[in-house]
Structure formats: C-alpha cells, structure tokens
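re: that chain from earlier
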Amino acid sequence: METRAEVTKDANRRLRVAIAGFGTVGSAVARILIEQGAASSFELAYILNRRIAKKRVDWMPGSVRWTDDIDEVLDSDVDVFVELMGGLDPAGTWVRRALASGKSVVTANKALIAAEGVALSELACRHRQHLAYGASVAGGVPVLSGLQEGLAGDQLVRVSGILNGTCNYILTRMEDAGLSFADALLEAQRAGFAEADPSADVDGYDARAKITILSRVALGADVDLETVLCRSIRPITAVDLRYAVELGCTIRQISHAEVKDNELHIAVQPMLVERALPHARVVGAQNIVVSTGRYGGETTFSGNGAGGNPTAVAVVSDLVALARLGTTSSESMSPALKKMVASSQFVMPHYTRYLVRDRPGILAAISQVLATYAINVDAVLQLPGHSREALPFAITLEPSSQQALDAAMAEIGKLHFLAQPPLCLPILRKRA
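^ sequence. v structure.
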C-alpha cells in the first residue's frame, strides 16, 4: 500500500496544503501559493483560523475552504499542514495531531521547535512524515538549509549571530541618533519593528529560542531551552555606545553557541563587537549568522530576518523541497543529537561601565576588588561633560572567567559611591 510519505515523491501530484494561522506570514504564504497557480506543486485547500468572517479576503479563490475546525482539516485529504499561529498551545497539539494523522508539517514556530523540536521530529519519523522549520530562524535567510546541506561536509564547532531584528534596530538607532533605549524602543514600535510588549525581543527570549535551534542543527547539541542564559539590552545607554566607538566597537545583541569539553557554551546577551567582525556591519532589522567549521572556516548568512514576505519565502521553500525531493531542507533533527549541559562560562575580555558619585579613591576601590578575583584591567576610559554626581566611566578587562567576573561585579555593586549597579558586557573580537 502506498504511504503518504511516498505520495510526496510523486512529481505528478499536486500537494494539498492547509494553512493554520492567517496573519501576516500566513496571508503572505497563501498569496505566494495562489500567484504561482497551476505551475506550482501545491494546491491551497484550507485556511484554518479563528473568527474567519473577519479574515476572509477577496483575492482568495473560491476553491479554498475557510474553517475554524481543526478536526475538519485533520480528517481531510490534506498532505501538508502549515502551522503559522505561533506559541506552544494549541499549535503544539495541532502539529502533533497532524503528524499522527499522516500529514507532514511545515512551521515557522521558533518557540515550539525550540521547546519540543526533538520530540516532534521523533514523532514525524515514527509516522513517516516530514517536519520542516526552515523559517523558524532568521526568517527569509536560508540558514538552516545552508548549515544542514551546504555545510554537511564540514564539522561545525561554533555558531553566532544577530537573530533578533528588533534589538538590532533599537541598538542601531541608539548609536546613529544618540537616542535613549526608551526613545529607540518607541520609534521601533511606531515603525512596526517592536511589539507593544517588547519583552520577548529586548530581554533575549526570542533569540534564545533561535540559538537553541541553531545549536541542534549546526552543532548536534541538545540543551534545555530554559537553561540558556539570556540578558536584556535594556541597561544599554547612549554613553555605552559612545565608549564602544572609542574602543573601535559597536554594541549588538549576540547569540553564541560553541561546543567545548563536552559542554555547550551558549548565551544571548548584548556585547561590544569589534568593527572588523561581520556582526558589526549588520544594521536595522537585519539578521546574520556566522558558522565556524573545523575544515571550511567561517561561513556567513545574512539578510532580512523578519517580516511577512521574507518568512513566507522560507515557508514556501520548505514546501518546494518537500514536493521536489520527498524531503525537506530542515526536516527531522539528527538522531545523533547529543544531550549537553548549557554553560555560560565564556572566557572573554569585558567592558564594564560605572555610574558614580565622584569621590577620591573610586578607581582604587574597584581595582582592589578586581584584583581579589585575579581580573586584570586593560584600560580606563572617561569622556568629559558629565555631572560629578552621575559620572560615567568605563574599564575594559582582560579575558577572565564569567564566574569570577560575576562575583566581582556583585561585590563592586555594593560600593557606596555607585549611583546604579555596574554594567558588564563581553567584548567579541576577531579571532587570531
């Protein structure tokens, strides 16, 4: 008897597609499929959404059925379930049911794939279906397919990047226009780059989901999402960006993962980034991913990481791969995944910034604490033009362990002359 997985390899048969979620991305996917028409390998059969009366559009062919009933879709002869609702529930339940009912799944749901991707891939394999999630990281940039297929002959050891366009837009505007974080965020919200509640973006949770997925695909490392360190860009000020310029750097939210000694060193945090690095040249809402291989060295992927059309292109590309090859460019995760402990103990140089009420002996007191934890000072910077009661200055530090640095910053934070807790950021420099 012919299985559904075998049907997907029949080039003469158009795959029937259901789209769950008719928002910005879902409507863009639908429009691409419709505009490609009979020349494509797909037939859009269902739109699944709540309150369908408010979602109907006049450009949708009459052959497409609108419904708010998941059972109707799963009981149909649809071949591929395209999940574009986002979130964990009901999306996760519906994806599991779709796979179990003999339908392949294409999704852009980073939160779901980060949290449940391994289990969903195993479920897809058991039911001889495909799970594709190429749009879950970096939107329209073909990162996952590039890592899995284009670099399949290499042994990847590190992956880093800028994975959140909202943060990059905010930091770029703070640097270019001298805006405060609050003003840059408000501008991003008005421009449609930031949500009314920006926490997932600016506090690192969105990028954490993406670097978790990248770690599995690029490094074969599986870590628990909730154990991955993420730090907010909220404490960054215009002063920090001025000091960064003095140091030949900029500031970006960097997602980084590297396998070391059977641990996955992984984190999402704002960093000073040396201007010579490709990360520093990414402006506005764009994304970049830089992978490092044992044999091939560095490979860079960059482009528009968000928005309806770029993400829709990634979704349709997964559909095309499924139809063309009977597989997907980013289907089930490798069964060779290795469970690893997430560690944030990077050994890196750091930038520290202090806001103080100016008194004699401040530098001596800070230096004494740093020396206690065997942390060496590299340079001291102080720009003129600030009040003595709110005086910012910066100290850069030679490479030290995160554990020692955290302990030192906690102790320095108790010193009486500080007007606010110190800021500590890693410095990402070009490797020799």
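DSSP finds 15 helices and 19 strands in the chain.
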